[in-house]
Amino acid sequence: MENLAPLARFFHGGGVFMYPIALTLGLALAVAIERFFFLMRWKRDNKRLWSEVSPLLAQGDLAGAELLTASSETAVARILANGLAQTRIDSRRSELEIATEEGLMEVLPAIERRTHYLATFSNVATLLGLLGTVLGLIGAFAALGAADASQKADLLSAGISEAMNCTAFGLMVAIPSLLLHSWLQSRTGELVDSLESVCSRFVSSICNPARAR
Predict the structure, then answer these.
(1) What is the full per-residue pLDDT of the chain (213 aa) written as tens digits?
(2) Which DSSP category does 89 fall into?
(3) Cβ(58)–Cβ(209) below 8 Å
(4) Cβ-contact 185, 115 below 8 angstroms
């Protein structure tokens, strides 16, 4: 508990704007954690499904591949389902590429969902910190006018301390939020690249099985 005392003093010394900044921190952490586990789970599940489907495609067993994709909710399953459905209509390369790209476009919103909120939370935390600083300084200087000369130094010190605490806390939330946003964007890009690779390999396995791997 003694270790928490400086943190508690820091928080309470920052004024009322510390609370919305803390709320922003909570929201940023919730989004980051949810997105992290979502992306890791989809990456793992997609890789496992493709490892099961690719040998069937290489053997020309499209019916078996359809059974596997029908029982899965992964992004790879949705993309392959579009491609396999197209093979029954027209298996030309151009048509298969369009079908798999449409499947990819269908899953992109789920992959990219909410990640951009982290950049917004970073900006909001910074602006809340600055607003708290400005209002804290305004209040401190306004209080100086009606204060005794002996109290002015203490009032000014308290007002500046409150303002700086608010700025510091805002930046302490903003910087990690921005870093998390960049990191998750990178992971999202990797997942999208892997799905684009699946699209290409699926088309190759249907149009040129000898070269598909």
Answers:
(1) 455 577 777 777 777 888 999 999 999 999 999 999 999 999 999 999 898 888 888 888 888 888 888 888 889 989 998 888 888 888 788 888 899 898 899 899 988 889 999 999 999 999 999 988 888 777 777 766 665 655 666 666 666 777 788 888 999 999 999 999 999 999 999 999 999 998 988 888 887 754 444
(2) T
(3) yes
(4) yes
Instruction: Count CA within 13 A, CB hemisphere, residue 33.
Output: 6
Residues 6 or more apart whose CB falls under 8 angstroms from that of 15 comprise 132, 135, 136, 162, 163, 165, 166
Q: What count of other Cβ atoms lies within 10 Å of the Cβ of residue 39? A: 17
Q: Which two tokens stand for residue 74?
A: 């992964």
Give the length of the chain.
Answer: 213
Q: Residue 129, class by beta-carbon neighbours within 10 Å (0-12 exposed, 13-18 middle, 19+ buried)? A: buried
Q: Look at residues 116, 153, 117, 161 and name the one whose alpha carbon lies nearest to residue 136.
A: 161
As given in the structure block, the two tokens for residue 138 are 């305004």
Tell me which amino acid residue 3 is. Answer: N
Q: C-alpha distances in angstroms, 28 versus 184, 185, 204?
A: 12, 14, 41
